Task: structure prediction
Amino acid sequence: MKDDPYELLGVSKGATASEIKKAYRKLAVKYHPDKNPDDPSAEDKFKEIGHAYEILSDEDKRAAYDRYGHSAFEAGMGGGGRGGSHDPRDIFSQVFGGAFGGGGGFEDMFGGGGRRGGGGRPRAQKGSDLRYDLDISLEEAANGTEKELEIEKFANCKPCSGSGSKSGSGRSTCSACGGQGAVARQTGIFIQQMTCPQCDGSGSTISDPCTTCDGDGREQKLERVTIKIPAGVNTGNRLRSSGNGDSGQLGGPSGDLYVFLEVREHEIFTRDGDDLECEVPTPFSTCTLGGEIDVPTLSGKASIKVPAGTQGGTLFRLRDRGIPSLQTGRKGDLLVEVRVEVPTKLDSDQKEKLTQFAESIGDENAPLSGSFVEKAKKFFGKS
Result:
């Protein structure tokens, strides 16, 4: 009993021409003899799916098979054996676009085809982007600044003006690849494509390369680049300096320079978004009696009125003394935390007076201590 062509290709009887062709392409590649040199059965399978495709790809033959089966192709009913007498390899070539690698469709199927549409002309290449990590102070981040950076980069070669050739004649189409930048090597039914060894994939060559840049058209050098840093930046912000990356090749545009910022820790201030925080040591007497203390800000000295009885850890807010917002320009605040400064070197007279003072104030003048003792009473009896 002869095999059903629909079953051989794995399609339904209602399959479209596109579905039939797709199924054949998949199976033909799988069972092609050149891909299975050690499997004799693969060639038989290759022939069978070829005959099946010949029947189902032809509207008249498919209609005849649907009506009469394989008998439609026997002698007296159209002849031609099992659906015709075409060589399965010829069918394969027609489907894949040419005699084993000669057509574009077959090359595309197996990763060939090269670079098309170049017209034999050298292709311009954009230069690489560069990264620069920059540390700045908190003051610079708050006020904005300009920085001159020294960048090691590829720049146009001066002796050859970027042409790559000593005489300035420039590049010519590579004779090995015809300007495509790739050459193909065929192994059996497969096309292996590789970078052209003569031009290294550029598609062009130079007959008299510049001795300074070896024909690259660029040389590595140190260049100075000035960038503006806006007020309000923070660690992790990235600045882009357009066109200050590596120079392009063959007339291509330059890449960009990306500057990544790191704001150094400050000896007085800590930053929280657009706000600043600092701790200010405050004399015990000022916290007790009240008074004024001087506090530092990024824009100079400021004063804070400290009410009598101020406790350690109290926060005072100075409006608009923080960092300007990078988006709106509005400044954050400065939060000042009072740290009570306890005297450490007292003479005997001072100690006596302080003792007398402590005995005179009583528990009513120690509200925090009294509250704490009340809450902790249940723990004091434990050991």
The longest strand covers residues 145-156. The mean pLDDT is 82.
